[in-house]
């Protein structure tokens, strides 16, 4: 089979290509790309082909025909870093890593972070290319920073309207066009006042989120003073009382038993403490916190940033409806909404084989449900009773907390 190389190219065109990219293009017999990408590489001696529309399955057919010819050396052009929301991941999925050589360029996010002076690891990133604007909602909260990868010249106006409708009209938006190229340009305004009609098709939107009428709340204490093991002090979190307390949280994380690379659903997340401490256990872990109350969802995002796990995805929606479109979890924690009809059924159906589900109950009604589910699905029930010392006049006694029944079950 002939070779396939994916070459990332920036708005500056051929002038910004590295030596490996130049060699690949000079040896190519066929170069595939969008009209804009192909124009950036002119002049070329290789035959040029436009990307098919729609991309799939036309791309697979196109490449199969080209790569079946032993003498063809095919280069596919990509914007920026091919593995950052780019065609590189699609080609590897179609052909396998052994058949695709990736020559990366700077991503638009790297360039934007450099222009704005924002540490890239502190910025949430999402794309509205072929995706609904609702994806922004998972990452936006007061004082957060977000990069939105635009679909076209109309994206900034659409994003501004979406932010304003969601109560984030005061957010500062900077639209960066043609990053890295000779026609690079920026335009900055608030979402509610911005006029983003005259922007280039190739743009990225940087957002500093501000909510209308929002007063910053006291930030949780810096993450540097907290250990990475489960069971952080309760005052590490900003919360309204909906918080899995320290001792129970440590037991719950032990029951969830996180392993590298796994995904957790934290359903009825409250302050997000369980999903946050899941993520703090290992940098490869992933988590989605599902919370129906918008103020609590904002608070979860703030806590995740303060505790250095800004990668936590927060879904502001009600289970079970908002569970249906999420990636399959390796573990599920049901901390709230146990008695909500359909929540357990949806979580159990989505849970991967061999995955773990942990549920905590404090009421007689929810405890009864756990007993019923255990009878049907197996697993282990544990009653957890914790007492804390408390003043009794001039002396000290024990004050018991409400007992918690925990159910742990592994899906066959």
Q: Can you name the CATH architecture of the largest domain?
A: 3-Layer(aba) Sandwich
In CATH terms, the superfamily of the largest domain is Vaccinia Virus protein VP39
β-sheet strand percentage: 15-25%
CATH fold category name of the largest domain? Rossmann fold
List the helices and strands and how they pair.
Blueprint: E1 4-9, H1 19-27, E2 30-33, H2 35-40, E3 47-50, H3 55-67, E4 74-79, H4 87-95, E5 100-103, H5 108-116, E6 124-127, E7 145-149, H6 155-165, E8 172-177, E9 185-190, E10 203-208, H7 246-256, E11 263-267, H8 273-280, E12 286-291, H9 294-306, E13 313-316, E14 331-334, H10 343-350, E15 356-361, H11 364-377, E16 380-384, E17 387-392, E18 395-400, E19 404-410
Parallel strand pairs: 1-4, 1-5, 2-3, 2-4, 6-7, 11-12, 11-14, 12-13, 14-15
Antiparallel strand pairs: 7-10, 8-9, 8-10, 15-19, 16-19, 17-18
TL;DR of this structure?
The protein has 412 residues and is α/β, with parallel strands linked by helices. 27% of the residues lie in helices and 24% in strands. The chain is built from 11 helices and 19 strands.
Describe it for me?
This protein has 412 residues and is an alpha/beta fold. Helix 9 links the parallel strand 12 and strand 13 (313-316). The protein has three domains: 4-106, Tetrapyrrole methylase, N-terminal domain (Cobalt-precorrin-4 Transmethylase, domain 1), CATH 3.40.1010; 109-208, Tetrapyrrole methylase, C-terminal domain (Methyltransferase, Cobalt-precorrin-4 Transmethylase, Domain 2); 223-410, Rossmann fold (3-Layer(aba) Sandwich). The radius of gyration is 25 Å and the shape is elongated. It is 27% helix and 24% strand. A seven-stranded mixed sheet has the order 13-12-11-14-15-19-16, with helices on both faces.
